[in-house]
Amino acid sequence: MSRERPILFNGDMVRAILEGRKTMTRRVMKHQPGEVTAVGRPLFFQDGDTGRRVSPKCPYGQPGDHLWVRETFADEAGDTRKYLGDHIYYRADGDGVDLQDGFWTPSIHMPRWASRITLEVTGVRVERLQDISEEDAQAEGAEPKLCTGYPYHNPPSTHTNGFCQLWESINGPGSWDANPWVWVVEFRRLT
User: What pLDDT sits at residue 44?
Assistant: First the structure.
């Protein structure tokens, strides 16, 4: 039986999903593991506090589960509506919308009924952030970018460089260099 969970995306990533350019996401593991005792599926870590082997459970689900996307939105009917309908606007579609008496509601406050995008999880794994491949960086919806601070005269423009810059814009300065363990969640769009 599949389960359904919410997941937050910013406007750029919502647009990438809608355009079919984003089919995976990386999210920092809440509890960073200590020593890795086995690699593969299932993955086990040594718990730093208890010393026991732990197999982490992905908070974003397993293959077959559904994720409903939370994004910044506005509902001109106010909080009285309980279903998707007219006068629901999504910031990812453009800021030029005349909200009249409405206002933008942060994605964290989006109720399930207002979500327009549902994803099906097709794969889950754990890896270090900087182990991302060029293909995965493209599947993350990252645009090719030049590497900042590249020491050569003709620096390459790659999706991996673009993902590095995207990661730092979302997670803050130094977050790429921290190279945390991340959940890699692959998905396909259902709605």
Answer: 64
| CATH placement of domain 11-61+117-189 | 2.30.130
Q: Is 103 exposed, middle or buried (0-12, 13-18, 19+ CB in 10 A)?
A: exposed
Would you kindly state where each structural domain of the chain is located, as residue ranges?
A: 11-61+117-189
Q: How far apart are CA 190 and CA 128, in angstroms?
A: 28
Contacts of 144 (CB under 8 A, 6+ apart): 157, 158, 159, 161, 162
Query: In sequence order, which residues have a C-beta less than 8 Å from that of residue 164 and are 6 or more positions away?
Result: 145, 147, 176
Which amino acid appears at position 149 of this protein? Answer: G
Structure confidence at residue 77 (pLDDT)? 66
User: Can you read off the two tokens belonging to residue 117?
Assistant: 């995008």
Residue 171 has pLDDT above 80, yes or no: yes
Would you state the torsion angle of the CA atoms of residues 45, 34, 159, 189, taken in this order, to the nearest 10 degrees? 40
Residues 6+ apart with CB under 8 A from 176: 129, 130, 164, 167, 168
* Whole-model pTM over 0.90: no
